[in-house]
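Retro notes - structure team

What went well: the batch runner handled both jobs without manual restarts.
What didn't: labels got mixed up in the shared folder, which is why I'm recording both outputs here explicitly, each with its sequence directly above its tokens.

Job 1
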Amino acid sequence: MKAVIFDLDGTLIDSAPDLHAAVNCMLDDLRRPPLTLERVAGFVGNGVPTLVERCLEATGGLAEDFDRALARFREHYARSPARLTRPYPGVELALERLTLAGLALGVCTNKPQEFAVTILEELRMMPFIRTVVGGDATPKLKPDPAPLLLCLDRLGADGTSALYVGDSEIDAETAFRAKVPFALFSGGYLRESIDAFEPLYVFDHFGDLSDHVLGGGR
């Protein structure tokens, strides 16, 4: 194996608390009721515009000026995208182990590039990541395979020499369409039953993932 590529939200990091805070600031600007953390976490995964759209639909319907609502969310989120966000247990050590073993690591996420890089830098994970493909790096978001294929290309890998790690049905479909083996982190934002798809490997702690990869598992 040459490379391991990770989704970001719900996989490497629990970002829901900061997304939740920005969403409720946006809703307050629009004089709408707040949403719970659990509700917002359930909307994560399809990119920022879809997150905002789902939150608006849950609080009275789409705003007439959707672009303004989206801009307000981005402004609030940009102020502190990593204040409450934390890596999942074992992430830092797993990234270090995989890097020391000579594997190239990448991140492929629907989160906008600027936010993704900022969070990885603030949480001190960027030194382990060779490339980041954000949601605005290609014309289409995951589950379209284009972002993952771009990440593979940047790492000099392909479906026979890489593993994609994610937490959702979106990530599973992306890996399938890009013809890349998929490992599921079960502690993220999965909305469907694991039985709905067939990951190569399922784990609930990142120490198990690094053991699996470095032990020769695929």
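Job 2
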Amino acid sequence: MNTRPIIDESSGPFALSASFNADNSCFSVALETGFRVFTSKSGDLKLAREVGGGIGCAEMLSTTRYIALVGGGKQPKFPQNKVQIWNDATQLVSTSLEFKTPIQRVRISQSHLVVVLLNNVGIYKMKSPPEKIADYETVNNPFGLCSLGSKIVAFPGRTPGQVKLFHLDSGNVSIIPAHDSPLRALALSKNGDVVATASEQGTLIRIWSFPSCTKIGELRRGIDPAVIFSLAFSPIGSLLAVTSDKSTLHIFELPTPNSVPTPEPDPKTHKWGILSKVPLLPRPFSDIYSLAATKFEIGDEHVGWGPASKSATFNAGIPGVPGGRPTKGLIGWLDDNTLLVIGAGRDARWEKFIVGVNSDGKRVVYKEGWKRYLE
């Protein structure tokens, strides 16, 4: 007798994954029946397409009519080893790429396409058909970690905790031994001169300068291990936003590439006050903590469809979906003081936050609005 719980679809659409476009002006959502595109500033629906099957991930090319689609969910529309470049003007697939293994994630820009497999990253020039320019083996990368900038693309290397940086113009490759344990999140600044990384431990975020690949800062999210959902630099690169499975959004002030070493903590503003200056105390007392933090909503999900696995090297869940679980805590900056946190799943949410200063002159982050964007 089958005693497994039945996932009820009668309550409405189920968002499998979500992703921002390059300038965060829109976000695309993959569904069991198709995909939708929303305006980031308001969370309002911009485009809805029913394609007669599940889409695991949908990556929008800037603000154009092209969207990269990979099949996913219970009844995938497309094979999970193919990338389909959808032309919404014709509502047809204009071109596709086939691979030997399932696709974990796709990144797309006006000039390049990056396809992430479990143990491989392929980099292509955006043509019809796309032209391969590089191909690299990686450690197991079930979350499809990859950040595509205008100059470089960052992804895991061949050993756990390693970041590989590929220069899109020159083809040069740099390697950063970022962590001792596997990567769980990474991000590039807008101009590509700073890289942020987090491991599956989730306690420290490390900041690296490019092209020197030197560490310029180390930020402490917390003491207890956590799953880091997302890292994102503000447009001018002065702030870093971090979300985790603790349902907390942290805002960190960043060192600049030339500020080496990281400045000493100020006891007046540090979390541990004067204890941050006492020698021989454990390191967490002197580490740099976020300048502001607040709660975001992970949302209510079925137990079997939880937000994430703790492991950055093995994960099983929804076929065709990056990480195998609905996207949670995805960060997108609208400007240097405004950011969004997007979640997929049955309880799919759009939340807007403002970074400001309170009446005491202290930096704060607060929620300005939210909605369930599928309703």
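One thing worth noting from job 2: The CA atoms of residues 16 and 326 lie 5 Å apart.
We'll revisit the folder naming next retro.
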